[in-house]
Amino acid sequence: MITDFRGKTAFITGGASGIGLGMARAFGRAGMNVALADIDDAAAKASAERLASEQIKAVPIHCDVTERSGIRAAALEAVAAFGKIHVVCNNAGVAVGGPLGTVSERDWDWILDVNLKGVIYGVETFFPLIRSHGEGGHIVNTASMAGMIAPAGMEPYTATKFAVVAMSEGWAQQLAPVNIGVSVLCPGFVRTRIHESGRARQEKYGGKGEADALGGGSSEAAQMVMSGIDPDIVGARVLEAVNAGELYIFTHPQMREFVAMRFQNILAAFSTAAESETLKAVKEWAPVAPRPAVTPP
Prior knowledge:
Layout: E1 9-13, H1 18-29, E2 33-38, H2 41-53, E3 58-62, H3 68-82, E4 87-90, H4 105-133, E5 137-142, H5 155-175, E6 180-186, H6 220-226, H7 231-244, E7 248-250, H8 256-274
Parallel strand pairs: 1-2, 1-4, 2-3, 4-5, 5-6, 6-7
């Protein structure tokens, strides 16, 4: 964990805009250096200059999170700029959705590579660097309320976000013994450009000309995104949660009832299983293993 942020460094993917920039501003105001890792070089440069005008020391770094080698190169650049890395925010993300059977193979590859593998590559690249300096640190993985509930038509997106929640829960157990905290950020609607994520789509996934699966700026989803809360509020909430060592970071407490409804349905299914005539044939159950506390290699 980390509670004294002054003079330390945060590395943030998708840091040039939206929630990433909000986190950069929050950590920068707390006295941290900030590495803005983004696939959009022009946006990262402009955001770094904007933060500099706010007396926040930030550097733009090119980073394509779909390439493990790209994250490693970005990590080395951040270390060269600031030395030790203490906070890592695996935040870069895209959105794809649509009726069953309409999501293309390239869409699936794109969202899995960015939202899922990008987080994996970030954690696997940075946790040894944080562990090596022995000063503790924190990893924040951006999921979504779509990692807690599953709206119909958003299965590619929710698949990645549920996975990020689950991985973060496991990594939190593994990294606690080496003084590295883990949080998973699950925001509701935030004023970002997630509905226009195709603007930075790589050529191997169809390029920038590929239409956004959420329908572009006139869609209902776009309107909901643009009516969301300010990314700077989300950034401040993340700083607050990291300081407190929270595992789950929620930004929309009014959405609690939707999560509660899901878990009520799950618990009801366990009650149904307990009354199952079929399961009464089981004479002896294997013991339930305790939650492991695994130290990373």
